[in-house]
Amino acid sequence: MTGMWFLLALIALVGACALLYFDRSRRDQTGRVRQIWAKAQGYKYTDTEPQLPGQYHRAVMAKQEYLNAIDVVRGERRGESFVLFDLEDTATIVAVKREVGSDVDIDLRLKSTPPPKDSDLELLGAMGPRVVFSTDLEIARRVCDQRMVAFTESVPPHVNMLWSEGAWTLGSMPIGSSGREWDSAIETVARLSGILHVLPPVSGRGDFDQAHHDPSRPHPREGGRGRPVVAQQVGGRRPTGRPPVRPGDSRG
Q: Is residue 41 within 8 Å of 80, Cβ to Cβ?
């Protein structure tokens, strides 16, 4: 009987060693593929940056500071710096940095995804296939106009979560994604980062800053008039299609 248990333990040990070997081989292969991809794109590749995950604290990155950032790629897209890395075997993260940070954070996640656990994020409503949360609903309503609606409907399916925190706009996708998916994820997060340039900077939270306002989008009017309406409210209601109130119109 003792010999049988010893044999079973030995078999389990051999199996565990084999799994570790194959996992390491897969990780090494992924690292080589990403390194080749980064070099072809003119980006900088680093094996690991242990301190990197500690810079982010929302969505997928919540309470993940103890995990390492592996196969890190740094570069520039749409004039803004980005970093792409694997949060060990949890997720692949793309983070794009804006020149000016904001106190207002926004979270856009699929309707099938559980809501964020952050107590300061409040539900704004549904927009296309995603649900929007924000730390400031009034400002989020201004940002979530038709341009944001079009963006949410164009997000590729492998980009699971999108959110902002401070000067960073981030997105996540599953481990094992391809170079083509990395490219599209970086482009997607960079596009969202461009839209979020209209968020008020840290030094001027009350209103949109004139120096950083996107000229292709209307300025918010005083008293909340002219605010874009969220495309669809939670619960499946259809968009109202209600046009912005014009000056002198008696409707509120």
A: no
pLDDT at 3 over 80: no
Confirm whether 142 is domain-assigned.
yes
CA distance 145 to 231: 8
Burial class (CB in 10 A: 0-12, 13-18, 19+), 4: exposed
Q: How many domains does the chain have?
A: 1
**What CA–CA distance (Å, rounded) separates 184 from 74?**
15
Residue 142's nearest CA partner among 195, 194, 204 is 195
* 21 occurs within a structural domain: no
Structural domain that includes position 169: 44-224
The better pLDDT of the pair 108, 228 is held by: 108
Q: Establish if 129 belongs to a structural domain.
A: yes
Please report which confidence band the pLDDT of residue 43 belongs to, taking 50, 70 and 90 as the band edges. Answer: very high
Place of tokens 């950083």: 212
Instruction: Spell out the residues 6+ positions from residue 33 whose beta carbon is closer than 8 angstroms to its own.
Output: 179
* Half-sphere exposure of residue 178: CA atoms within 13 angstroms, side-chain side: 2
Pairwise CA distance, residues 236 & 243, whole Å: 20
Tokens 């940056």, located at residue? 49
Distance (Å, whole) CA 144 – CA 172? 21
Residue 196 forms part of a structural domain:
yes
- The predicted pLDDT at position 35 comes to 95
